[in-house]
Amino acid sequence: MKTNQVIEVALKAGEILLTGGAEIYRVEDTVIRICKSYNVEAECFVLPTGIFITVMDSEGNPISIVRRIRKRTVNLEKVEKINSFSRSLQNNPLSYREAMTGINSIMGLEGYSYALKLLVAGITPFVYALLFKGTAKEACASFLIGIVIYAIKEKITRAGVFEFFEYFISGLAAGILSVLTIKLYPLADLYRIIIASIIILLPGLAITNAIKDALYGDIVSSMFRLTEAVFVAAAVGVGVALALTIGLRWI
What we know:
Layout: H1 3-19, H2 24-37, E1 42-47, E2 50-56, E3 62-68, H3 76-91, H4 96-107, H5 114-131, H6 136-159, H7 163-184, H8 190-197, H9 204-215, H10 219-247
Antiparallel strand pairs: 1-2, 2-3
Helix pairs in contact: 1-2, 1-3, 1-4, 2-3, 3-4, 5-6, 5-8, 6-7, 6-8, 7-8, 7-10, 9-10
């Protein structure tokens, strides 16, 4: 396989990992591992917003490639499959066509169905409402609110609006729906419903990866992820606060 083809395979694999929610050290390790599988020495530097790769071609000339990453989601299935794929190349290096076919098939994975995601988005608040010692009615309300705010967030995501606006609107919707629940059922605990409902919006993976990046010495990436998590939490909080400020006046 030619050097530029090796870089393309490694870069594509790294992109899938980074957009799927993988840690920085995992992305760098995978890129270097794929290059070594084809006897290509590489240096890789990864940030949450970009991948930088430099290799030496057969004539000793450096080749550098940069891939800008603009959107990051959570898809741990793709992360696991790319992780396994990169390790399999060490024992069985594939041709360029075979390697790209395998990577493209992983990239094309659709994941779970939308209906199942909605169901899980409702079950999670439902369980947390009970965990917070809520009543069955509060848990059911959290279940419905979780489904609604997930559907709203997905529609905004598909519309291409910037990320923090998604969380602001989702937090606003959670607050409004929780206030409406209290209006219909005054005995319910407003704050318990809100807390349970917004659980699905909290950036748990970002915080976990930030800590892991810090432990592996990737301080810049760690600070980036922590800052991103703070902004996401702030966007959700502002949305909820706005809904409560308006809604509590007429309860």
